[in-house]
Amino acid sequence: MSVMNSFLRSFTRLNLRTQYQQPSTVLTRRSISSTPTNFATLNQIMRGARKSFTKVSKAPALENNPQKKGVCTKVYTTKPKKPNSAIRKVARVKLSNGRVVRAYIPGEGHNLQEHSVVLLRGGRTQDLPGVRYKIIRGALDFSGVVGRSSARSKYGCRLLLSLIYFILISTAKKPKDL
Length: 178
Known about the structure:
Blueprint: H1 2-19, H2 42-46, E1 67-78, E2 88-95, E3 100-104, E4 117-122, E5 133-135, H3 159-171
Keywords: Ribonucleoprotein, Ribosomal protein
GO molecular function, one term: structural constituent of ribosome
GO cellular component, one term: small ribosomal subunit
């Protein structure tokens, strides 16, 4: 019996010691403001601080659509901004909603001319000011890139056509050295 009492006494002593332990670290520094930073004050609310901002579209002519159909009014080349040097192919396109935009023609070579019907998507060309749209290859009147082997889906090139093109190139007779 005495062994049991001593065991219980030691258990309660341990429990009491752990119960009234002093905290090891105490924060003594006070914060500057008593209100959190993410809440607006009453004056800010009165002035209209809780207005939600709508996201501005980077391709407004598409009117929240993934693509728009349009007709080419002019196909021309232009030079990029300062550090870059090239001749970029660009088309002025009148969309089905009546807006006229400038669109980039991706890939090597194209069959576009005036009155060609094309499909546009969003996405600006970084070194061409004012060009915020790209024409989709392989859609409507715009043919895909011929003989493309990598990233074919982006340029409207089918596997069979690219294989035929590769075979023709590899089996073409080379002129003999004189």
